Amino acid sequence: MIAGINLAKQSKQAAVSLAQKRFAHDLIVSPKTGRTIIKTGAGGRSSSNGHVVTVFGCTGFLGRYLVNRLARDGAHVIVPYRDEDDMRHLKVMGDLGKIVPMEIHLRNKESLEAAIRHSDTVYNLLGRDYETKNFSFADVHVEAAGVLAELSQKHDVERFIQVSAMNADIDSASRFLSTKAQGEELVRSIFPSATIVRPSFMYGQEDRFLARLAMSRGLSIRINGGNTKVRPVNVSDVAGAMNKMLEGSNTVGETFELVGDKEYTYRELLDFIKEITNLDIGDVNVPKPVASLIAKAMNLLPWQTLGADEIERMMIDDKLTGVKTFADLEMEPTSLELTGIQYLRRFRTNLYSDEPLKKGVVGKKKTFHTSYL
C-alpha cells in the first residue's frame, strides 16, 4: 500500500516537472490590436513563438532564407505561392504544421486576403528583375505592394515589412529602382508604421550576382569600365536582420539599408573571382548603348536573361543615405572575402589544381587574401 502511494507521488512529481512553466514575459499583448502572442516551449522549431507570419515572395532567393529563419524560431509561416513546385522545398523548413502553403494570384484579391487575415506580421518580398508581358515593374513593386499594405491594415496586422532596393529613387533612370521608391511611398501612406528594407546586391548559394559574374567571364558586366561601386551583402545576413525585425520595437516605421562590410568596384570583384576560380576573365569594356541592345535582343529568348534595366542599374553606385543599418540591429555583415569561396568554388576550372599556392593578389586598391582557399 505504501509502495503504491510512493509510486503515485513520484508519477505526480514527474508530471509536474514535465509541465511547462509560464512567465509574464511569455505573454505579449499587441499595442495596436490587443491581440495576445503567447510563447510555448523551450525555443526552436518544435516550439512556438506565438507569431503567425505571411511571407509574400517566399519562393524567391531571399524568401527561402527568411522562411527558414522564421520557422527555426518557432513561428507559424504562411507561404503564398503560384506554382506548387516552387514552394515544396519550404515545407521541410519548419516542424509539422508550421509551414502553411496557400495558392495565390496577384490579381486575385480574395486569395491575397486569405493569406493575410490570420497573420500578425506580413513580409512583402515580391519583386521582379525584369518585366514580362503579364507583369510590369509597376504591377509588382507599386500596385501589389499597395494592395498588400491595404489588406494588412484592414485585418489589423501588427507589422508590415516591405523589401525595397538599395538606391531606390523615384527620379532614377532605372525603372526598377524608380518603381521600388514609388512602392515605398505608397506602403508608407497606407501603413505608416511599415518597416522599409533596402538591401544591396545579395550573394549566396543560388544568387544571380556572383554566379552571373563568374559564368559570364566578365564580358557582360564590363559596363562603365567596371568602375561602378557596389556593397554586396550576404543573403543570410539580410534574412537574419529581417527575422530580428519581427519583434524589434526599434524597427517600427524605420528604413534600413543593408549592405556589406566593404565597397568594391565591379573590376575588383572580377579580380577576386578570377583569383578564386582561375577563370579567364577578359578586359573587354562594353559601351552602355551596345550592352542595352544586346540585353534587349537576349530578352527575345524563351528564358530569362540579363535585362536592359539591369544594365542601367550597373551604372549606379551604392550610396548610403544615413538611415539605419545592420549596426542598429546589433549585427555585423559577413565579409565577402572570407566566405566567397563557398559560393565560387563550383566555378573553378581544372587548371586551378595545376597552379602553385599564392599568398594573395593585389588589386588596384585592395588585397584579397587567399591563404584560406
Question: What is the fold named in CATH at topology level of the largest domain?
Answer: Rossmann fold
CATH architecture descriptor text of the largest domain: 3-Layer(aba) Sandwich
- What is the ordering of alpha helices and beta strands? HEEEHEHEHEHEHEEHEEHEEHHHHEE
Counting copies of identical and different chains, the oligomeric state is single chain
**What is the approximate shape?**
globular
Rg, Cα atoms, Å: 24 Å
- Strand-residue proportion: 5-15%
- Whole-number tally of structural domains: 2
Number of strands: 15
Distance between the termini: 71 Å
Class of the largest domain in CATH? Answer: Alpha Beta
Report the CATH superfamily of the largest domain.
NAD(P)-binding Rossmann-like Domain
- Identify low-pLDDT runs: 14-19, 361-373
Helix fraction, binned, reads 25-40%
- The whole-number mean of residue pLDDT values reads 84
